[in-house]
Design goal:
Number of domains: 3
CATH architecture of the largest domain: 3-Layer(aba) Sandwich
Distance between the termini: 35 Å
Number of strands: 16
Strand order of the largest sheet: 10-11-12-13-14-15-16
Order of helices and strands: HHEHHHEEEEEEEEHHEHHEEEHEHEEH
Number of helices: 12
C-alpha cells in the first residue's frame, strides 16, 4: 500500500470539492458529454494529472466508500457542478450530462419585442413559470410579429420585471387557440417556445421598459435589447432531455449558485414562491434594501482582500467564497437593531448550519455578518459555537469575536 509523505498530505488535505470542479466537467466532456458518476470520478483524477501518491491521501471526510481524499472531493464536485448549472442528472441513477452553455443567444437580426403578462390589478403570482407557456395573448392584432422573433415577457403589476423569453413559433397573431380565461378581452394569440424562465421573486426590470398594453412592442435600441438578454442569461430553459441550461422548475433555478452581482437590485417579495418556508423567508429577506446594501459592503471588502469564487444561491446562501488561503466560508447577512438582535442571530445560526449541510462541506467556516454592533453575550455564544461574527460597513470589515478575527486573518481558530 502506497503511503503518501507528510508534505503531499499537507498539500492535498486542504483542497475542497470546488478545486476539482473543472476536472469533473472536463472528465464528462472527455467521456462524450455523459457518463456514470463513478466513471466521472475516475476520469477526473486522470485529466487532473493527480499522481498515485496524491490519490493515496486518506480522506478527511469519514463516510463509507470514501477512503481517499481526492476521490471524495471529485464525488462532491459532481454535486458542486450541478449547483453551478454545469451538470444535470439524466435518470436519477447516477448518470450525469453536461448541461450545455448557460444563457440564450441574441436574435441574429435584432427582432426583439416585449409583451405583458398578467394585469396591473391582478399580476401573475410568484409561482408563475414562463417555461409552462405555449401561447401569449393580446387585445390587438400585431402586424409585425412573425415566426422566429424573440418576445420578452414583462410582468404587469410587478414593476415590469422580465419574467421570460420566448421564440415565436406561429406565423404571427392568430384567432386560435381561444384564450381560456377571457376570450373577449384577449382574442389574438401567438404560439411560443420558452427560451428562458425567470422565477418572479428574483426577477429584475430593465430601466425604461414597461409591460405593454394591447399588443407586443418592438425594442429598437441595441443597448436595451442587450440589457434584456442580460437579465435572463442565467435562466435558460432545459429541453425535455434536461440539457441546455438546467431545470424548467424555478425552484430549482433559485437553488443554483451564481456569481454575486452588486448591480442586482433587491427583488420583490417571495410570498407564494412555491418552495419550503425557509426558502420563502430567504427570498423575502433578499428583497430588503438594507440587506442588499449589507451584502454589497461585504462583497466589496472581500474582493479587495483577495477572496475568490464569491457567489450566492438565491433561495439560500447569501454569499460564499474562498479565502486567499483556500478556505471555504459561508456568510449569512443580518440587519441588526436593538429589538431584533437575538432573533436575527438565532436565525443566522440556524440558516448557516442548514446551508453547510445542504450546500457546503463539513469544514466550511460559518460567518454571521451584521451592519451594527451586537451585544457581547450574543457574540460570545456564537464564539462558543465556532461561528464568526463580522461587522460590514462602507469602510470595510471588523471582527466582533475571536473566530471572526481568525476568519479575517485567514488563520485557524486557536
Amino acid at each position: 500500500m502506497l503511503v503518501p509523505s507528510d508534505d503531499v498530505s499537507a498539500r492535498i488535505l486542504p483542497l475542497k470539492p470546488s478545486d476539482l470542479a473543472d476536472d469533473v466537467t472536463r472528465a464528462v466532456a472527455a467521456l462524450g458529454g455523459e457518463a456514470q458518476r463513478v466513471d466521472i470520478i475516475d476520469r477526473a483524477l486522470e485529466v487532473g494529472g493527480w499522481t498515485n501518491e496524491e490519490r493515496a491521501v486518506v480522506s478527511r471526510y469519514v463516510k463509507p466508500s470514501r477512503t481517499y481524499h481526492l476521490r471524495t472531493l471529485a464525488d462532491y464536485a459532481v454535486t458542486t457542478c450541478k449547483e453551478r448549472g454545469n451538470l444535470v442528472e439524466v435518470d436519477g441513477k447516477g448518470r450525469w450530462r453536461l448541461a450545455g452553455p448557460l444563457g440564450v443567444a441574441s436574435h441574429p437580426h435584432g427582432r426583439v419585442f416585449t409583451a405583458g403578462v398578467g394585469l396591473g390589478t391582478e399580476p401573475v403570482g410568484d409561482d408563475w413559470n414562463a417555461a409552462d407557456s405555449q401561447h401569449l395573448w393580446f387585445t390587438q392584432r400585431s402586424l409585425t410579429l412573425s415566426r422566429g422573433d424573440h418576445v420578452f415577457a414583462l410582468g404587469a403589476g410587478r414593476k415590469s420585471v422580465v419574467l421570460g423569453l420566448f421564440e415565436v413559433t406561429s406565423g404571427g397573431t392568430e384567432r386560435t387557440p381561444v384564450n381560456p380565461w377571457d376570450p373577449t378581452r384577449w382574442p389574438w394569440a401567438i404560439a411560443v417556445r420558452p427560451l428562458a424562465a425567470v422565477p418572479p421573486p428574483i426577477a429584475h426590470a430593465v430601466p425604461g421598459l414597461t409591460a405593454p398594453r394591447g399588443t407586443a412592442n418592438a425594442v429598437g435600441e441595441k443597448a436595451t435589447r442587450d440589457a434584456l438578454y442580460a437579465v435572463v442569461r442565467e435562466f435558460a430553459v432545459a429541453d425535455e432531455g434536461g440539457a441546455f441550461g438546467g431545470s424548467r422548475d424555478p425552484r430549482v433555478v433559485a437553488r443554483r449558485a451564481r456569481p454575486f452581482d452588486l448591480s442586482r437590485a433587491p427583488a420583490t417579495s417571495a410570498s407564494g414562491f412555491g418552495g419550503d418556508d425557509s426558502e420563502a423567508r430567504a427570498l423575502r429577506e433578499k428583497a430588503q434594501q438594507g440587506h442588499h446594501q449589507l451584502l454589497a459592503h461585504l462583497h466589496t471588502a472581500l474582493d479587495r482582500r483577495g477572496w475568490s469564487a464569491l457567489e450566492e444561491i438565491p433561495a439560500a446562501i447569501d454569499l460564499r467564497g474562498q479565502s486567499p488561503v483556500g478556505e471555504s466560508v459561508i456568510f449569512e447577512a443580518k440587519t441588526i437593531n436593538e429589538s431584533n438582535e437575538t432573533s436575527q442571530c438565532r436565525g443566522a445560526l440556524a440558516q448557516l448550519l442548514e446551508y453547510r449541510l445542504e450546500y457546503g462541506q463539513p469544514d466550511d467556516r460559518l460567518v454571521v455578518v451584521v451592519d451594527n454592533e451586537v451585544g457581547s453575550r450574543r457574540s460570545d455564544i456564537l464564539e462558543r459555537l465556532g461561528v464568526a461574527v463580522v461587522l460590514a460597513t462602507p469602510e470595510g470589515l471588523a471582527a466582533l469575536n475571536q473566530t471572526g478575527q481568525a476568519v479575517l486573518e485567514h488563520r485557524p481558530v486557536s
